[in-house]
Amino acid sequence: MQELDTFKLIERISALLRSEERKKYAAIGLQPVHGQVLEYLAKCNKYSNTHAAVAEYLGLTKGTVSQTIQILERKRYLDKTTDLLDGRVVHLSLTDTGKQLIDELKPLDIFKQAESKVSRQEFDTIGQALQTTLGVLQKVNESKSFGLCRSCHYFSVEQHHYQCGLTEQPLDREDTDKICRDHLPIPNSFIDQE
Fold it and tell me: Does pTM top 0.85 for this prediction?
């Protein structure tokens, strides 16, 4: 069960970061895949800066990579150069504009903020570290937590039943183990520190 919880936390953190990444790239008329290609090209060597290597590294189809590279070339973020020894091979390299874009967009600001807060804390399990990281990312991003009902500020145990303080309604036992869009995390002094 612990492995599943850890996986779900990683999945949730990834979804939050992808959402933030989509917003950033959309603001400049690009998709996240464009940024992923640029980031790869910024760190690969001269033997790995080809269409095929990009497709293999990112797990994308050749068609997707080809279309992505065409867009990035039109926007002047990358250049193509034919290999001197094998004219069939085309090398890809970032232009100064492409390098500048990578510097401006990565890493995500919310992740840098979360990393700075979480790195000062010690954890007993990876699950605790991931849960804290997720909480910080959600707070910085001002997104809903969608946490488990029983971990909510509004959750309480009344005389012989569970109660939601927001709706003032009793809760079924099985609902307390499910996620809720109105979830309000219980204040965590570490997360709330500035």
Answer: no
pLDDT digits (tens, 9 = 90+) for 105-159: 765 666 777 777 777 778 888 777 877 777 777 777 677 767 778 888 888 898 8
Structural domains present in the chain: 2-17+109-192 (no CATH), 31-105 (1.10.10.10)
SS3 of the chain: CHHHHHHHHHHHHHHHHHHHHHHHHHCCCCCHHHHHHHHHHHHCCCCCCCHHHHHHHHCCCHHHHHHHHHHHHHCCCEEEEECCCCCCCEEEEECHHHHHHHHHHCCCHHHHHHHHHHCCCCCCCHHHHHHHHHHHHHHHHCCCCCCEHHHECCEEECCCCEEECCCCEEECHHHHHCECCCCCECCCHHHHCC
